[in-house]
Each structure stands twice: as C-alpha cells, then as structure tokens.
C-alpha cells in the first residue's frame, strides 16, 4: 500500500511539472490587414514580432500558427502580405497572402517599403479573415491548476507517511 500511494503521488507531481513545461497558451489572434495601411512607411513585422507588438513581451516568447487557436495545431507559420504580391507569382489576383515561417521577414532596412518586402501586420495584399495569425505563449508561467496538481501529489505522499506512522504506533 505504501508503494502505491508513493507512486500515485509521484506520478501526479511529475505530470504537473511536465504539463506546465510543455504547455502553450493561446493569447490572441489578428488578421494581417489589421496593421497600418501600406502607403505609409510601415515596419515589416514577422509573425512573432507582430504578436509581441499586439500582446506584449518579446517576440521570442511567442509561437505562431495559421491553423486555429488550438495549441495542438501550432504549425510555426504566419501569414504575411508581400509588397506587389501579384508580380511575385504568389497570387492570381487580390486578395492574397503567403505562409512563411513565424520568424520570417523580408524588408528594406526593417521597413515594408519595396517590392518583395513582407509583413505579418500591414493592410496591403493579405486582406480578410482567411489571413489570420494565432499567437501562443511558448513557455508560459505554470497555471494555478499545475500547482494544485503538484500539491495534491505531495499531499498524497504526506498522507501515506502519516498513515504508516499511525499503523506503526498502533502495532507497538
């Protein structure tokens, strides 16, 4: 019985730690066209940089997906608009966007300024809800539920130890 209680407590505690270490938390989404209008000189944002701009923190804290808000479906891609997209063979017409890696950007000195430049946050070619990026925190702080699971595991270990001591005292 002692071994079972110990193993149960250990399993709950370890699963809580493993769950919190690998979790990705959905923080929000945006459509590429929610950015500044293309005719003003705009910053050329990667998907991660756009997430940091919109939701706070640093770009490296985020993972991006073009699929949906489910952390299981994260594909580490982002939608971008490409300056003069039609002339680069990406599109047959307007609207259009390109899927690229979440940290990808082509820019002119960091700006969305010349043909071929890309941005995950600019109103240009990628217009509409089909060009939505989903942002997730890559390594979030463990949630209260994680701590509760860890404490439950430790509580089971304590309960098993107390029960053992009571049995030993009764036998003596």
Keywords:
172 residues; alpha+beta; 2 domains; 3-stranded antiparallel β-sheet; 8 strands
Structure report:
The protein has 172 residues and is α+β, with helices and mostly antiparallel strands. It has two domains: 1-22 and 142-172; 24-141, no CATH class. It has helices at 2-22, 47-55, 144-171; strands at 25-31, 42-43, 62-65, 77-82, 98-101, 111-112, 118-119, 132-137. The protein starts with a helix and ends with a helix.
Question: Brief description of this entry?
Answer:
The protein is an alpha+beta fold and 172 residues long.
What secondary-structure arrangement, pairings included, does this model have?
Elements: H1 2-22, E1 25-31, E2 42-43, H2 47-55, E3 62-65, E4 77-82, E5 98-101, E6 111-112, E7 118-119, E8 132-137, H3 144-171
Antiparallel strand pairs: 1-8, 2-6, 3-8, 4-5, 4-7
* Largest beta-sheet characterization: 3 strands, antiparallel
Overall tally of domains = 2
Shape summary: rod-shaped
Beta-strand proportion = 15-25%
Question: How many β-strand stretches?
Answer: 8
Structural class: alpha+beta
Q: Give the CA-CA distance, first to last residue.
A: 19 Å
Mean pLDDT score: 80
Q: Element order, helices and strands? A: HEEHEEEEEEH
The portion of residues assigned to helices is 25-40%
Runs with pLDDT <50, length 5+?
A: none
Strand order of the largest sheet: 1-8-3
Radius of gyration: 25 Å
